[in-house]
Design brief:
Length: about 160
């Protein structure tokens, strides 16, 4: 197994957990949070937007409002529905899988030039994206607990 195949397999586990978490909230809970920063719609949208950003080949062309006409920091009532974000998630998961599997071990060890704040090599960008998404998956898991929903199973 190559590093990229292992990373792709871990990404799919992460996306599976993300799907389950989104699915366990009701539409009402989706737009409600104890704090403006803890609104599940905002958290999920933000995490997906930036996962999308980090698989781009031209980060300067990325527009956070291109897909839905809103940004994660906008009014929660204007943010995408759970169904819309599940579709976005499926798209990002497929593109992430394709991207990761297109990289051989040598490519993962190449210098990171597009997103230098992520680290020195391409694999650090992959891990940075995983860490960012996992951080927000934890926030979504907290939202499940606050709303009395069943916790997401570890994958």
């Amino acid at each position: 197994m190559s590093l990229s195949n292992g990373l792709a397999a871990q990404a799919e586990r992460q996306w599976t957990m993300f799907r389950m978490t989104i699915g366990r909230l009701t539409d009402e809970q989706w737009y409600a949070g104890e704090h403006p920063g803890l609104v599940p719609a905002r958290i999920a949208f933000h995490a997906l937007q930036w996962a999308d950003f980090y698989i781009q080949s031209d980060p300067s062309a990325f527009d956070t409002k291109a897909r839905f006409g809103v940004d994660a920091n906008d009014d929660p009532a204007t943010l995408p529905s759970r169904a819309a974000l599940r579709t976005y998630l499926d798209d990002i998961a497929a593109r992430t899988d394709t991207h990761l599997r297109s990289l051989d071990d040598a490519a993962l060890l190449e210098e990171e030039t597009l997103f230098p704040w992520c680290g020195a090599i391409v694999m650090e960008r992959v891990l940075y994206t995983f860490r960012h998404t996992t951080y927000h998956l934890g926030e979504l898991s907290y939202a499940l607990r606050v709303h009395g929903a069943k916790a997401t199973e570890w994958k």
